[in-house]
Specification:
Structural class: mainly beta
Distance between the termini: 59 Å
Helix content: 10-25%
Radius of gyration: 18 Å
Order of helices and strands: HEEEEEEEEEE
């Protein structure tokens, strides 16, 4: 009986690991010390897989996007920082975006623990900044964030490259 239980538990664990490995938008994270602050982003990485961003794949022009997949992307800073010159207190935030042509609105929402953008409430925004997007070269099949030591946060997604500057 004990061997049967152990075998069953082993199969269950292998199944769970297999499902996690096959997740179409796997979890990812990036962290960087910027001045005195540690800035990190935890997100799920969607892949384009032949779909068209803006039509069959987010972001859709004019609509709030979770800036990733699955749960809302979480942006965290250990100390107060500025984002594009505007103050953002230390803490955790859901990172959302809205694209309008080449203009991107970067949103830091106080409700960081939420699924996607389904329960997003603008009244919970801690900060919004606008930046100009550019062209990713090469094309980014998988959505990726990077944070440089100088505080430049870069989002690469399909043909899009969006950057914003953080300072502590």
């Amino acid at each position: 009986m004990k061997k049967l239980f152990t075998l069953g538990l082993s199969l269950l664990l292998l199944s769970a690991i297999s499902v996690q490995a096959q997740k179409p938008s796997p979890p990812a994270s990036v962290s960087q010390k910027v001045g005195d602050a540690i800035v990190s982003i935890n997100y799920s990485q969607p892949s384009v897989r032949g779909r068209i961003i803006g039509e069959t794949l987010e972001p859709i022009e004019g609509k709030v996007w979770r800036t990733g997949a699955n749960e809302a992307t979480v942006f965290e800073t250990s100390k107060d920082i500025t984002v594009e010159g505007k103050t953002l207190p230390a803490g955790k935030y859901a990172l959302f975006t809205i694209v309008n042509g080449n203009e991107w609105t970067i949103i830091f929402n106080k409700t960081w623990d939420q699924w996607g953008a389904f329960s997003y409430k603008e009244a919970e925004d801690a900060l919004r900044v606008k930046v100009t997007g550019g062209k990713a070269d090469p094309f980014a099949e998988t959505m990726t964030f990077t944070i440089a030591e100088n505080g430049t946060v870069t989002l690469l997604w399909g043909g899009n490259k969006v950057e914003f500057k953080v300072k502590s």
